[in-house]
Amino acid sequence: MKHTIRTSLLTLALGALLAVPANAQDLSEDVKTARAQEAARIAVIDKVSQTFVAIGGGSGVIVSADGLILTNHHVAGSRPVGSTWIVTRPGGIFERAKILGTDPRGDITLLKMEKSGPYPFVEFGDSDAIEVGQAVIALGNPFGFSKDGTPNVTVGLISATHRFQGGYSDAIQTDTAINPGNSGGPLIDFQGRLLGINGRIAVRFGTRANTGIGYAIPTNQIKAFLPQLKEGQVGHGVVRGLSMEDTPAGGQGARVSRVRSGSGAASAGFKTGDVIVHAGGRPVHNPRRFEGIVGTYPAGDTIEVVVERGSERVTLEATLEARDRSASEAAKSSRTGGYLGVRLSSPDEGGAEVEEVVAGSPAAQAGLQTGDVISQFNGTKVKNVQHLISLLTKSRIGQTIKLSVLRNGTLETVRVKLGDKPK
Q1: Which of 22, 252, 354, 358 has the smallest number of CB atoms closer than 10 Å to its CB?
Q2: Which entry of 59, 64, 107, 236 is annotated as an active-site residue?
Q3: What is d(CA 317, CA 172) in angstroms, rounded to the nearest whole number?
């Protein structure tokens, strides 16, 4: 038995020797390189962590020396413009920050520190230059774990780009672990540059925890809206009067199925049968991609659109109009009925599009999302916002309603238990 053990040990020893590379120097250099990369990553995380703030149970990041802060609307936008939040910087430093502007559809709120600074800040990266498979880092306050303003850190990859998720019309998708509380925090590259603001996760079976699919609002989109955010009023653009459909047999582009007479689309020169192939210099694969590109521009901007018309290509210039938005919250504008907790607009194709979901509302608890188009209410086809409000007026507090919702081209059913109107 002892001879067998000795033989086994000798075999293992020989195997270990054979496993050593012929050039041990190569192994040593690889270890040095790995350690240097690790040290550089730690240094980047330490530097960006100084720009992090915890706010309202979520996260935020300082983006300028004078103390501008970016976070999600669903984190800090529940208070009116001009009001303040107490934010926590690393080390448990509490400071006051004022809301300058908010973008419910784009899910971004801009604040500014009341002190003059200077503050450490993260630099903007080019979100259009990111690639699938690129390594990224997320900093945040998951489940409120950051008690002293020091962020939690997770590392992952870019899973996809240009994802259309309603209000997140041009989102970055990442498998970096993102959980409730990470909302509003930065998604950065390994050079410490800001690529996006984390804000949404895909959930399964009603569990609000990391599933490996998270979405971030890209920095290039945010930069386009910064001037409006600083002024307090944000309006996303849209091409009015344009109806689109997929091209046949899986072809590329978005086919124009209808152009409403007298609309902005008609003025721009769109014609039924046109196939949109480029918008704003970016390729258009389908109608969702066109809507996603347009959603990254403020109202009033003009974008160049290339269409295939028969055998020729035609370049059009479309001036974007502001998306219609109901002046008040649906069902809150009526004196009777149950409370849903959304703000709505009326799309060209009918129904009621969700522009904002009020935090903690019945709509939020049921999983309604910005960009959802409510097409049916308990089996009744919804014509527009006012029609939906009239249907809600006839409902009652505590009633569970069934909504048919068009989400990213797929029809889904959402059941909502209506609540009482907040005071």
Answers
A1: 22
A2: 107
A3: 27
